[in-house]
Amino acid sequence: MKLKSLALTAALVASTLGAMLAPSLAQAQAKEQFFPLLVYRTGPYAPNGTPWANGKQDYIKLVNANGGINGVKIAYEECETGYATDKGVECYERLKGRPGVALFDPQATGITFALTDKVPTDKIPLITLGYGLAASQDGGVFKWNFPLMGSYWTAADILIQHIGKKEGGMDKLKGKKIALVYHDSPFGKEPIPLLQERAKQNGFELSLIPVTAPGVEQKSAWLQVRQQRPDFVLLWGWGVMNSTALKEAVATGYPREKMYGVWWAGAEPDVKDVGANAKGYHALALNTSGTEPKVIQDILKQVHDKGQGTGPKDEVGSVLYTRGVIIQMLTIEAVKRAQERFGKGKVMTGEQVRWGMENLALDQKKLDALGFSGVMRPVSTSCQDHMGSTWARVHTWDGAKWGDMSDWYQADEQIIKPMVKTAADKYAGEKKLTRREAADCQS
Taking the CB of residue 6, how many other CB atoms lie within 10 A of it? Predict the structure, then answer.
């Protein structure tokens, strides 16, 4: 019996050690850097999710065609979420153990919320470009989250700045009515605290009008708009909700030039079915569109012209396609940055990629060299700042294409920073986390 007990104990110890060592051994044996690609090519969000996903894949193919990441080839696998949180978590659990896994881009705020508690244990960073949890800009609390290039707080702040400028000054907002027509989900609710703070500071009246996901039925919401007669409508939509909102605005006679969308409501799929009737509608822009940028030309020549394009050629360079390219570029540059410290030409672990993500230094010279001249703003992250850029512009639909791009706006840090710190401290208190110390910023 004693021998049997000892054998059983030894087996349990071996099993436990094996489970502990498996991820690190798998990483050590990995020959390729693996990028899990969570996508939604089906369902009501597919028209927007598909070009985004295609841009990511095409950029990976471009990098692989030019030798990979300092000689390390990139492997990838798509996992369909349908924008559903439960499916997103399933995809994460299935793919997180793959050899060479670098990071995850959930492509949905709800999925991001669900994974935020998981990634510190699994030591895999999350990139949430232009979405996710606004408080996660604070790297002192959110070590593994990277809301690069903007959050819904920076987005909302910039829209209010732009409206104020158009009205002749922020003081002119006093007494105005602004309605937020929003996707009734974590994504749509995220800008509300910032807008409430702005309403308090600038004296405008804020009304909140939720739209049940996915947003194909909005008549009751637009009845409220017609009854309230707001001076401006902010549209916080995604997928089919955006075109439906514009059609309802047409039906109720609400001026499209008084409507301003978040950057996920400012792409071709949002307006093409409305066409000339959407003329005058404005939306935020994190990036330019078109086929002129060198990186887009390179993709056309080295990927699509060789019959290796992921989607239709005429989609290349569109707003969301280009954003997908940007996201994949930033993730690959994070791996490159990690290689500078941990070994050029080696497969990086999630922990190492996290360091690379936290130490991105993409100035204009670097962006130009990568072929992104004129496409986006520079991005520079740090231990304290996991966003790296808080700038955006506003573009306008002329009935056939996006154009009339505004100057760049930077979100007001005097408003954003205290809100981020307060929210991050609250999160840390709820989760019993301590803020990172200086030594941790070097790890």
Answer: 10
**For the chain, which domains are there?**
23-150+289-380+419-442 (3.40.50.2300), 153-285+395-411 (3.40.50.2300)
Beta-bridged to residue 261, according to DSSP, are 235, 283
Q: How confident is the model at residue 438 (pLDDT cuts 50, 70, 90)?
A: confident
- Per-residue pLDDT of 323-376, as tens digits, reads 999 999 999 999 999 999 999 999 999 999 999 999 999 999 999 999 999 999
Q: Are strands 74-80 and 232-236 parallel, antiparallel or unpaired?
A: unpaired
At residue 2, does pLDDT exceed 50? no
